[in-house]
């Protein structure tokens, strides 16, 4: 019986340890979900400004479908020095079916966000900017909306007049950006391999599609994660519903596909963290009970074997 109790305690210890490990890769300081802010209208890990409006139930609106707005959302603390993934759910929408703009940006830069002309972010930044450009200013033959990637050196301005043509180091088409409800983006940075990859899923039933993958990425030693958006003469809503970040070992690390789909707003398969933990604990208890029962059965069989035969 003493041996059985020892086994029981050891299994319980490992079950709890596994629970801690399963949660330890999440980066709370780089994540934000409803209701986003506390009663003081502040977020512990994020700051925001410009035209950004936070609706506790419906999302973070960097801009509304109004002219001449610029808004941003930025982390208070930098990204980790290890490899990481950022899963973000967002929506770009407008009452107009044909005319809308200008777009939104995702940044990994030395600078925290400040209101500026580059999709609501300051110009001449140092780091990487990923732009979801929804309006074609002057790039004949290019399909919009489009994702454009720029490596900023702290001196070079973004080529606004030609939609980043002079700055683009990678990009992809985002033709379905307006035709769906919510879009899911998955940004991965592999520090050891020096790679940066963006994948997009334009609705809950779609698989992730690789937009780009950069090699020889020179990420700033201190990089802040920011999102921003801007409207001009044309307008659209730029809304962020959730951002979930976590550490990874390499760029090909894949968490369960269900995680990605569960993050989509309104998904019928969505599970809260408490439900996931409950399921994990339940499975652990079943395993513990099974091992304990097996051990008890073995002890009974041993007693029967040792009993004298009459």
Automatic annotation (TrEMBL):
For this protein, the parts annotated as crossing the membrane are: 278-297
Q: What is its main location?
A: membrane
Biological process according to GO: endoplasmic reticulum to Golgi vesicle-mediated transport
Please provide the record's keywords in A-Z order. Membrane, Receptor, Signal, Transmembrane, Transmembrane helix
Membrane topology term reads: Single-pass type I membrane protein
Q: Does the keyword Transmembrane apply?
A: yes
- Leader sequence segment: 1-22
Subcellular location(s) per record: Membrane
Quick one: a GO cellular component term? Golgi membrane
**Sorted alphabetically, which Pfam families does this protein's record hold?**
Lectin_leg-like
PROSITE patterns to which the protein is assigned, alphabetical: L_LECTIN_LIKE
Concerning SUPFAM superfamilies, the annotation shows:
Concanavalin A-like lectins/glucanases
Domain (L-type lectin-like): give its ranges. 24-248
Q: Which Gene3D superfamilies match?
A: 2.60.120.200
Q: Which GO terms describe its molecular function?
A: D-mannose binding
Protein's UniProt name: Lectin family glycoprotein receptor
- Native source species: Schizosaccharomyces cryophilus (strain OY26 / ATCC MYA-4695 / CBS 11777 / NBRC 106824 / NRRL Y48691) (Fission yeast)
Q: What is the lineage of its organism?
A: Eukaryota, Fungi, Dikarya, Ascomycota, Taphrinomycotina
